[in-house]
Structure formats: structure tokens, C-alpha cells
Amino acid sequence: MSGKKPHEDISIEFKEYHTPSSGIFFKASKQLYKQDSPYQKIEVIENEHFGRILLLDGLIQTTEKDEFFYHEMLVHPAFLSHPEPRSVLIIGGGDGGVLKEVLRYPVENVCLVEIDSQVIKVSQEYFPWLSPCLKDERTELVIADGTEFIEQTNKTFDIVCVDSSEPVGPSKSLHEEDFYQNMKRCLNSRSIIVAQTGSPIFHQNSIKLKNRFLKKIFKVVCFYMSPVPTYPGGSWAFVFLSDSVQSLEINGNPPEGLLYFNPDIHRAAFSLPNFFKNELD
Amino acid sequence: MSGKKPHEDISIEFKEYHTPSSGIFFKASKQLYKQDSPYQKIEVIENEHFGRILLLDGLIQTTEKDEFFYHEMLVHPAFLSHPEPRSVLIIGGGDGGVLKEVLRYPVENVCLVEIDSQVIKVSQEYFPWLSPCLKDERTELVIADGTEFIEQTNKTFDIVCVDSSEPVGPSKSLHEEDFYQNMKRCLNSRSIIVAQTGSPIFHQNSIKLKNRFLKKIFKVVCFYMSPVPTYPGGSWAFVFLSDSVQSLEINGNPPEGLLYFNPDIHRAAFSLPNFFKNELD
């Protein structure tokens, strides 16, 4: 009777609660990684349908099968609207999915600021899209707290993508007013910020509060929505922020080969259902 | 030691598998109903967040909390496009959610054809929106097989809503070519049919096949999408069919008080992501 080898086939059930009485479950055929970093519990499991799944503190961050919904929709709306994006800042996003989408464009430099170097290492090993992105000479990797980075940097960026995890744990400050206020330091007159803002179904209060303080800071504050099958409720909300570029302005072309995004989707994503519009009034 | 009383508080976990290795779970604080009808297993459970949930053969049909996503999006796109809908046929929909949305309009008559009278009885008891709809003098309730009804009726309808369950069990024939071919008998020159067509994420093959045969039968075949948080993948696909009315034609106004639908959402819903468009080519 021998013990289990690492990476041996298993059948563990992972559950993520979306409310105290409901959620999503996955059977893992393999647990590929499980370790606490100084910031959070990092896990990689393998599921028959969704492939590899990255969990931080038990919450699904990305899956091989459906990562494109979230990553395309965090990146391409800003790039379609910006007339000439050259310098890009990604806050968070250590799994590399946002970076992969950004590098589809002829940008000059992309700075990825991730607080947890362990997330980068794990993603490099288990998520095949990250390693080539890190080797791209336009990529600069900074291991730092995103809030401190924007307080200290002297650079400005055409597009900033805030790919935070939920407002618990290390990402908490990335959801607060000060963070967005300080971000003005890193912007030029045509800059666009995009950020994930949680579930339009389960996180309505936090979206409502965020909308209120963002309107004090930016002239253009436009929320948009997209399906993300493995996130709570299957839909996710994002916000497009700028002082000069309107969200429905189309100044660019999407790159070839996208699985989700196209210019019709861009316009459609900013059309909000009544219950969501009512939250923003 | 006494046995459990009916409707006693419980804490059972209900799971719906969306793939063989993943799905959604709910804790039921009460099991309000559980019985096999001649057609299917009917259950009503109560969940703290979603309220009452109707399950047929273990699959979630509707929940109190999020029913509006599906029901509004099955009904209002057709009504916004049709210039003057007077007579409406609902195939399936025994829970009454579609009927509720249809009766918001000044229609003259609505015929609801449900195969399973037990679904009607259960919904009348547990889903508060159904009973007033059945009392509405414009409503005619027919307990019959939808496929047989359309083969035999002499009536025609301005709008037909196909609110089937999945293509297993009693709804199987409502997903087949013959059903749509025969439906031409019930249409006039300006009729619109709308039908749920499954998950754009998990049921791509069935959507592909359906698109192929529908294109042989109807001049206008336009798929659209909407979030439905408690359905597999959190997004659902629908199809808009007509021989004369274009899906983006707007001839009417949506009624007051909708939680999801508005004219912007109408246009947005028909903007399909690349992966879905590719399935339809």
C-alpha cells in the first residue's frame, strides 16, 4: 500500500460559494499545485471539461477553456477605443491572460505589476500562454503592490488594465477610491483605464459605491458586461474610465483570431440591462 | 423519534451537472414538492438566495429571483419587432413566466399549450405569478403535446414562443425539424417565432444543427444571447424566426417595469461573439 504520488490522478470536488447557499462545483482529476504564498493560497487543478484551473484563496481566477471571455473583454474594448495605444500598464494579472491579449497589438511597452511572484511562477509552469509573453521584449515585469507602484512611478500609460482579484485579501486596495485617485498621476490626456468590477448580479452594492466615487474622479465612467461562464452568475462587470475618450468611440481594429470580441460586441457590451442601469443612477 | 413532516426545514444539496465534471449546486432550506408526473419528475425547492426553484427531471427551469432574465428575453425581442401582436401561442411554459411577460401587452388572446398538467398545478401553488395569468380572460390553457397541437390547430398566431425544456424527455420533439416545418401552418405573413435553443457554451452542436434546418424553413433566422445566471454557463441562446420581420426592426415599445429588457438590450443581444458566429457559418 503506497502513498499517493504528487500529481497522481484524484477525484476531489472543488466548490466555490457564490452565495451562502449556492455556487459552482468542479471535479478535479488532478491537483497540480497547492501552496500558500505570503499573500494567498494558490491552487491549480485539472478538470476534464475546463482544463487547468487557477484558484486564489479558493476562488476561480481563470480556466484554460473559458479564459478568453474575461481576458478579451478586459482588454479589447479599451484598445478599440484608444486611437494609438503605445504604453500599457497591467495591475495584477499575474496569470498572464491579460498580457497575452495586450501583446496582440503593436504596443511599445507593457508593464505588468503583480504583488505575488508565486502567482507568476505557478502560471509560467501551468498556464501555457504566460511564458512566451514574459519573453516578449516589450514586457517589463514588476513584483510590487499595485497601489504603491502607482503612487511612486514617474511613467504615464495610454491604457491601464486593472486585473484584480476580489476585494478581499491582497487586492482590497485596488477597489478603493484612493487607488483610482492616485492613478491620475499615471495618465496622459488620452488615457483609458479598464477594471473588472465584480458580478453585476451578486456584487451590486460594491458596483454602486464604485460608480459613485469613480464619477468624482473621471469624466467618462461606463460600465460594461460580458459572460464569463465560470465566474459567479456567469456574467461579469467591467468599467471603462477616461477623461477624454468616449467608450463607444471606435478608433482601432481588433486583432485577428479573437474568440469572443468584435466591434459589434463592443457596442453591445455597453448596453446595460435595466436592473444594472438602475444601480448606477 | 418522529418522521419528517412535509415541508419541514431541511438542508439538502441539489446539484445540476453541466458537464460530466462540473455544475451548479444549491442548498435547499425546504423541499416544497416532489412527485413524478406521467412525463417527468417535478420538484420545487426553496433556496435562501434564489427563492423557490422549479426543477424538472433534476434540471433547473426557473427560480423566483432570476426568472426575469430568461422570461423577458424569450418574450420581449419578438414583441418589440412585431408591429401589432394580437394572437400569441406559447408552447410549453407551464410555469407561467412567459405568459406573465406576454400579458404585459394589449394582446387579444394567448394560447398556452403545456403537455404536463401537473406542472401547471404545481406552479399555480408555488409560483405566485402564474395564478393571476390563468385568470386573465385572454388566456386559453390547452393541455396537449405541442407538436400535435400545431399539426392540428386551424388558428394562426402573430407570435409563437417555444418555451421548451431540454431536448430530452417530453420536450424532445420541440427541438426537431418537423416541429418547425409544421409550425408554418400556424403562421401568418408577419409572424415571428422565438425559441430557447440551449447553452451557447455547452450545446454548440445542437445549435449548429438547428441553425442548419431552420435556415431551410425560414427567411430570417437570427440567434441571440442573454445572461441567465442559474442556467448552465450563465448565458442562454434563443432564436428569432420569421419570413418577413427582421430581428433588428423595432416597431413597438417595451412595457414599463421590466428588470432586464430595453431597446438597447434588444440590439445588443443579437450581436454575437466570434465563437458563436463561427458555429453558425
Number of H/I helices of chain A: 9
CATH class of the largest domain in chain A: Alpha Beta
> What strand line-up does the widest sheet of chain A have?
8-7-6-9-10-12-11
> How would you sum up the major sheet of chain A?
7 strands, mixed
Average pLDDT of chain A: 93
Please tally the β strands of chain A and state the result: 12
Biggest interface: A-B, 41 and 41 residues
- As for the number of domains of chain A, it is 2
CATH topology assignment of the largest domain in chain A = Rossmann fold
Distance between the amino and carboxyl termini of chain A: 64 Å
Low-confidence stretches of chain A: 1-6
Specify the CATH homologous superfamily of the largest domain in chain A. Answer: Vaccinia Virus protein VP39
